[in-house]
Design goal:
The complex is a heterodimer. Chain A starts with a strand and ends with a strand. Chain A has strands at residues 4-7, 10-13, 19-25, 31-38, 42-51, 54-57, 64-66, 76-78, 87-94, 103-104, 108-112. By secondary structure, chain A is mainly β. Classes of the chains: A mainly beta, B mainly beta. Chain A binds chain B through residues 4, 31, 33, 35, 40-45, 48, 50, 56, 58-59, 90, 92, 96-99, 101-102, 104-107, and chain B through 1, 6, 9, 31-32, 34, 36, 41-46, 49, 51, 89, 93-94, 97-105.
């Protein structure tokens, strides 16, 4: 199993550009989520999904879109990048339910100039 | 929603000493409390977790305690080693929705 994979590892954007961060998992997990990690802020939930076709907002959803067309993939779209979106982004997956371990990907470091 | 606070933000200990990291949570409906370790340049990885029906759990040098009444839980690492140096996050879930709420992290440095 590859676990949770994320691409790209690094990305530099200019303000106003759009891009998609890719996330895939091969563990047949129902639950997938996106977090951003900023210094002193911990991990903050952006969007999550409890299954194909179902998504919902987390703590900090503004400026981001998601979709879940398959169980395996959960891409995160930045529609018009802003410097405030400079961060490290982590995708995670787990079986649905409260007691299930979340598996994290290696992260994408995004810089918006 | 849930609010998880974590202290301290940085912690330095001598090799062989113990380290304690504390977290509090606000939502009494939360029932699962995992701890994650994040090494430099990597994603967080689960090291231990505890459910709300258990007061303490131990795995070799790592233990977690939970006080539901006071809404706080703690990570204890004994006989620390240099490889324990990392950022540690606490989290809470099981309240509203299926979301995990993370603390702000503790950077632990073990000095050889």
């Amino acid at each position: 199993n590859a676990g949770v994979t994320q691409t790209p590892k690094f990305q530099v954007l200019k303000t106003g550009q759009s891009m998609t961060l890719q996330c895939a998992q091969d563990m047949n997990h129902e639950y997938m989520s996106w977090y951003r990690q900023d210094p002193g802020m911990g991990l903050r939930l952006i969007h999550y999904s409890v299954g194909a076709g179902i998504t919902d907002q987390g703590e900090v959803p503004n400026g981001y879109n998601v979709s879940r067309s398959t169980t395996e993939d959960f891409p995160l779209r930045l529609l018009s990048a802003a410097p405030s979106q400079t961060s490290v982004y982590f995708c995670a997956s787990s079986y649905e339910g409260s007691y299930n371990e979340q598996f994290f990907g290696p992260g994408t470091r995004l810089t918006v100039l | 929603g849930e609010n998880v606070e974590q202290h301290p933000s940085t912690l330095s200990v001598q090799e062989g000493d113990s380290a304690v990291i504390k977290c509090t949570y606000s939502d009494s409906a939360s029932n699962y409390f995992p701890w994650y370790k994040q090494e430099l340049g990597k994603g967080p990885q689960l090291i231990i977790d505890i459910r709300s029906n258990v007061g303490e759990k131990k795995d070799q040098r790592i233990a977690v305690t939970l006080n539901k009444t006071a809404k706080h839980f703690s990570l204890h690492i004994t006989e620390t080693q240099p490889e324990d140096s990392a950022v540690y996050f606490c989290a809470a879930s099981g309240g509203t929705g299926n979301q995990f709420y993370f603390g702000t992290g503790t950077s632990l440095t073990v000095i050889p």
